[in-house]
């Protein structure tokens, strides 16, 4: 049975104009919260129209599009090519702005192991381990992310039902256990580069992410 997490509440909301390096821009409603169970400063970025359970658009069946995006300093800020985090965030902002919804920016660097832990894992990856093996070798779980705070934020925003922008089935599974009705899982693009080919293949093969890695990436992994 789903179990609703402790209640959180919206703390502040402020408009922030966004502009990406390719020229795309939009305005986000940046929302902060009180009562999140881990005490961290997670954010929700409201994009496009306001679609909540009480809105006319919601009653017509248009559930807000939601992306759970785990913080990645190296990819989001510095443009690292070792992962696809930066391009996924850029894609998500535009797609959500088109239809209305939220990007949840979650302070879960390195799949929940922290920035230094992630960089330590990079060292092991350069010695031949994949991303999951490196986390385990450092004494962490392969993926240590917990989406309880994301569910708290979703409930605080009055969203009983959401369409989830993700290739990761674990996100939908965790939200479902936390009393969030995921009506649809919308796939994201595959942002392949020579530098992240093995990373993407590992996500598909070991992490059960629902996309087919490019043939070049599969050959590199093999």
Automatic annotation (TrEMBL):
Copy the pathway line from the protein's UniProt record. Cofactor biosynthesis; riboflavin biosynthesis; 5-amino-6-(D-ribitylamino)uracil from GTP: step 1/4
Catalysed transformations (reactions): GTP + 4 H2O = 2,5-diamino-6-hydroxy-4-(5-phosphoribosylamino)-pyrimidine + formate + 2 phosphate + 3 H(+)
Q: Which Pfam families match?
A: GTP_cyclohydro2
Domain called GTP cyclohydrolase II: residue spans: 25-187
Task: Name what cofactor the protein needs.
Answer: Zn(2+)
Q: Does the keyword Nuclease apply?
A: no
Against InterPro entries, the record matches this protein to:
GTP_cyclohydro_II (IPR032677), RibA (IPR000926), RibA-like_sf (IPR036144)
Q: What is its EC number?
A: 3.5.4.25
Keyword Nucleotide-binding present in the record's keywords: the answer is: yes
> In which domain of life is the source organism classified?
Bacteria
Keywords of the record, alphabetical order, are: GTP-binding, Hydrolase, Metal-binding, Nucleotide-binding, Riboflavin biosynthesis, Zinc
**Any transmembrane segments, and where?**
none
Write down the NCBIfam families for this protein, in alphabetical order.
PRK00393.1
- This protein's name: GTP cyclohydrolase II
Species, as recorded: Fodinibacter luteus
């Amino acid at each position: 049975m789903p179990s609703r997490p402790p209640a959180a509440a919206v703390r502040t909301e402020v408009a922030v104009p966004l502009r990406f390096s390719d020229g795309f821009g939009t305005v986000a409603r940046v929302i902060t919260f009180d009562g999140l169970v881990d005490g961290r400063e997670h954010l929700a970025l409201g994009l496009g129209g306001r679609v909540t359970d009480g809105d006319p658009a919601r009653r017509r069946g248009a559930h807000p599009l939601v992306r759970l995006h785990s913080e990645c300093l190296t990819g989001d800020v510095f443009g690292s090519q070792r992962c696809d985090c930066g391009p996924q965030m850029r894609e998500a902002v535009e797609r959500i702005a088109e239809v209305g919804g939220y990007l949840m920016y979650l302070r879960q660097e390195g799949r929940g192991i922290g920035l230094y832990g992630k960089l330590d894992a990079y060292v092991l990856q350069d010695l031949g381990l994949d991303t999951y093996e490196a986390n385990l070798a450092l004494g962490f779980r392969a993926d240590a992310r917990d989406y309880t705070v994301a569910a708290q934020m979703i409930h605080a925003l009055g969203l009983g039902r959401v369409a989830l922008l993700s290739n990761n089935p674990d996100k939908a599974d965790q939200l479902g256990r936390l009393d969030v009705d995921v009506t649809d899982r919308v796939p994201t693009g595959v942002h392949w580069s020579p530098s992240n080919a093995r990373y993407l293949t590992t996500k598909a093969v070991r992490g059960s992410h629902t996309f087919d890695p490019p043939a070049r990436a599969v050959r590199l992994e093999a």
